[in-house]
Design goal:
Length: 162
């Protein structure tokens, strides 16, 4: 199974402040939806709450220690699961598909970091304020294999070095 982190990140590594992302680009959101469509996504409860809805066309696995804080609607269009750990979420995802996206937040990225095969990042050419950060993308560990400049940001792919 390919485990891929997907995130929008400021130049200084900031993802947000725990409640919202500092950047929002329509092109990034459209790409996020297109890339993750059909694949399971793993995210923490706060990230799910920040998105504010269940995304159609993909299984969303929400990681939380408080299972009662995640309400899954009785709606056939919603494919959602809840896990109490990243390891449990990865095991659920493996049963569903050969590709899974880890979609944040910062603590979920940290817990999944050693399991990641790729990073699919939108790297913004500006710093941001916030306490939630992406772990450092160490060039000794991660090899850049794709960069698509878009003006204010680049779409960048990294693979774990063998």
């Amino acid at each position: 199974m390919a485990v891929i982190a997907i995130a929008i990140v400021a130049r200084n590594g900031v993802l947000g402040d725990g409640e919202a992302q500092p950047f929002e680009f329509a092109e990034d959101w459209a790409r996020y939806k297109r890339v993750t469509l059909g694949h399971p996504m793993i995210m923490g409860r706060a990230t799910h709450d920040a998105i504010g809805r269940w995304l159609p066309g993909r299984t969303t696995i929400v990681v939380t220690r408080n299972l009662d804080r995640v309400e899954i609607p009785d709606d056939p269009r919603v494919d959602a699961r809840v896990a109490t750990s990243v390891e449990e979420a990865l095991a659920l995802a493996q049963e569903l598909d050969d590709t899974v996206y880890v979609a944040g937040g910062g603590e979920i990225y940290r817990q999944a970091w050693d399991s990641l095969d790729e990073l699919d990042l939108t790297e913004v050419h500006a710093d941001a304020e916030g306490s939630v950060t992406l772990p450092d993308v160490d060039p000794a560990v991660w090899e850049e294999y794709r960069r698509d400049p878009r003006g204010e940001f680049d779409f960048v792919g990294y693979r774990r070095r063998q």
